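Recall that a protein's primary structure is simply its ordered list of amino acids. Everything else, from secondary elements to tertiary packing, is in principle encoded there. The following example makes that idea concrete.
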Amino acid sequence: MIDFIWIIIGLFVVFGFTLAYIDNQQSKKRWTKLTKIVYFASILLTAIFLRFSLIWLLFTHSAPLVKTVEYIPVSNIQKELPIYSKTTTDLTRINLNKKQLIVFYKIGCPYCNAAHETIQKEIKYLPKNEVHFVEVNSKAGRFLTKEFHVEEAHTILVYKRQKDNALKFEESLVLNTKDGKQIFIADTQNIIDAIHFFKSIKS
């Protein structure tokens, strides 16, 4: 399944090619081969730039631009990153007088990318005001990772209203293949354990 940005890009490309075809048919002078190549190339380059811009605007604008480039070819970015506007960047939104589930992530982190889809499924029915996605390089992320000694970006923190009672769970793990490649996968059991532990805490 592709993300909604690819759908926008697809519609843009179809629209551009349709205009090119109509213009070519109505023109007194048919386009040369070079003109077609230049026109089509400009459409494709504009489409790539449009995807880059939308990814940066909606998902990655808290990170260096080079990190956005990594996500351009991704088929479904929503499986790897939360929409930035739905993440927690302001500490005042995290009520440390109540239980909280904090999902840390880092843009460009393959461990975090691998775990995101599974985490989204598991937290679907949890109270939204008790669950927070926090990018580790954001202001809130820098404070919380230091406060709770979070060393890895791919970490779920379950907070029990007391700093000393906060437990950390790794979100994902890496498998090494026979040919030396690394495959990053969600640690589903760890994620489920974190959710169950969170649910077991009285509000």
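The chain has a mean pLDDT of 90. The chain has two domains: 4-69, 80-200.
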